[in-house]
Design brief:
alpha+beta; BirA Bifunctional Protein, domain 2; Rossmann fold; 2 domains; 5-stranded mixed β-sheet; 23% strand; binds adenosine-5'-triphosphate; binds magnesium ion; aminoacyl-trna synthetase; histidine-tRNA ligase activity; aa-tRNA-synth_II; Anticodon-bd_dom_sf
Length: 419
């Protein structure tokens, strides 16, 4: 019996993979422009890293992790997100000691969450994310946001909508928390079961609940922005000011939360008109308590993550075609056994000069080979028959205009390269 792909995962086949490569290239180029350097961390980490680095009370840790005991009796987890691992690596490799600061990093790679699969929600998905660790300058908050926006606008996405908020810090959040608990306590019985248990443990996350009843109960809940302290209020104003300066429009959404103790100040999401509804295509924020939480010194940090899957779906739904190159430079057709041998050498020479080339391996007739060349998007078909072999020439057929020219074998490479 045939074996199927696991639920919530996908094969990326040729035809589609070129889009992935294009998007990943865009991500790398945008990071180069902003001077962020790539980091690659393992696909799995000690489970404890995510318990501490993502937070015990989050959906990710409570419900979504792929955790297993390995043969050495260690609890291992397939990474559900990138930030915790990057921060672990930052601390472990003492990157805070590098002469260039802040530490500006990016990653692209698969993440794993046991979710209910649907469009844009996979169990294995690929995130592109950046982290800037070591600076509390609000200008870097704006830079991180600008990087995400630049990435998406360069891909051609339209109707991007940026929402920002400040979630305060250890000073102002407890005050807001008290107000929030007070407000919600009166309606405790009406909250969903998840939120009932969140009320004491992590009331901020109730603001994020998708349940309609919870949404309506929190409609008039006190906003964190009303309680920002003397550090956080000007920080938030400064971030907004920098965004204004570079003309990135935004709306303040005081309900947007990152419900963890070590998430601080700036939180943001980018939404786009996508697959049928408004979709979050990027989420990020500041995490000034995280480095310490993972065992490092007290270091501020900020970052974002987005998934290639959602980016692709949104591009498709907006009808945006990426300019991917699926052409082949040359397809060689040999007629006869001697010519067949010759094409092997020609093929090797073309490739050695950086010309993408292929030939038939199924002993097909001339007509079928021409069809194959067409399917590969070949720009030129090179035909070698007995006569050509004798005269040391090749017939070069230009597939765009149909014209044919005879070119000496010795001139072939420079002829193709000049086209
Ligand atoms: P959501 O509320 O949609 O579950 P999230 O808060 O879990 O999102 P983050 O952990 O902030 O998302 O991840 C950042 C981005 O990664 C999201 O904005 C989204 O674009 C993407 N993403 C998150 N989960 C998935 C998934 N299961 N499949 C595909 N993309 C995802
Ligand atoms: Mg989620």
């Amino acid at each position: 019996m045939a074996i199927n792909i696991p639920r919530g995962t996908a094969d990326v086949l040729p035809g589609e993979v070129e889009l992935w490569q294009y998007i990943e290239k865009q991500a790398r180029e945008t990071c180069k422009l902003f001077n962020y350097r790539e980091i690659r961390t393992p696909i799995f980490e000690h489970t404890e890293l995510f318990q501490r680095g993502v937070g015990e009370t989050t959906d990710i840790v409570e419900k979504e992790m792929y955790t297993f005991i390995d043969k050495g009796d260690r609890s291992i987890t397939l990474r559900p997100e990138g930030t915790a691992a990057v921060v672990r690596s930052y601390v472990e490799n003492k990157m805070y000691g590098d002469p260039v600061q802040p530490t500006k990093l990016f990653y692209i790679g698969p993440m794993f969450r046991y979710e209910r699969p649907q469009a844009g929600r996979m169990r294995q998905f690929t995130q592109f994310g950046v982290e800037a660790i070591g600076s509390n300058d609000p200008a870097i908050d704006a830079e991180v946001i600008a990087l995400a926006m630049r990435f998406y606008t360069n891909l051609g996405l339209k109707e991007l909508h940026l929402e920002i908020n400040s979630v305060g810090c250890q000073v102002c959040r407890p005050i807001h928390r008290e107000h929030l608990i007070q407000h919600l306590a009166e309606h405790k019985d009406e909250l969903c079961d998840d939120c009932k248990s969140r009320l004491d443990r992590n009331p901020l996350r109730i603001l994020d609940c998708k349940n309609e009843k919870c949404k309506s109960l929190t409609k008039d809940a006190p906003n964190i922005t009303e309680h920002l302290c003397e550090n956080c209020a000007p920080q938030f104003e400064a971030v907004k000011g920098y965004l204004d300066q570079v003309q990135i429009p935004y709306t303040v959404n005081p309900r947007m939360v990152r419900g963890l103790d070590y998430y601080t100040q700036t939180a943001f999401e980018i939404m786009a008109e996508g697959f049928g509804s408004i979709t979050t295509v990027c989420g990020g924020g500041r995490y000034n308590g995280l480095v310490e939480q993972i065992g490092g010194n007290d270091m501020p940090g900020i970052g974002f993550a987005l998934s290639i899957e959602r980016a692709l779906l949104t591009l498709k739904s907006q009808g945006i075609e990426l300019p991917v190159d699926t052409t082949l430079d040359c397809y060689l057709i040999a007629l006869g056994e001697e010519a067949e041998k010759k094409t092997t050498v020609l093929l090797d020479q073309l490739r050695a000069h950086g010309i993408a080339a292929d030939k038939d391996y199924l002993s097909r007739k001339m007509k079928a080979q021409l069809k194959a060349a067409d399917r590969y998007g070949a720009r030129f078909v090179l035909i070698v028959g007995e006569d050509e072999l004798k005269n040391n020439v090749v017939i070069v057929k230009n597939m765009q205009d149909g014209s044919q020219t005879e070119v000496a074998v010795s001139e072939l490479i420079s002829y193709i390269l000049a086209q």
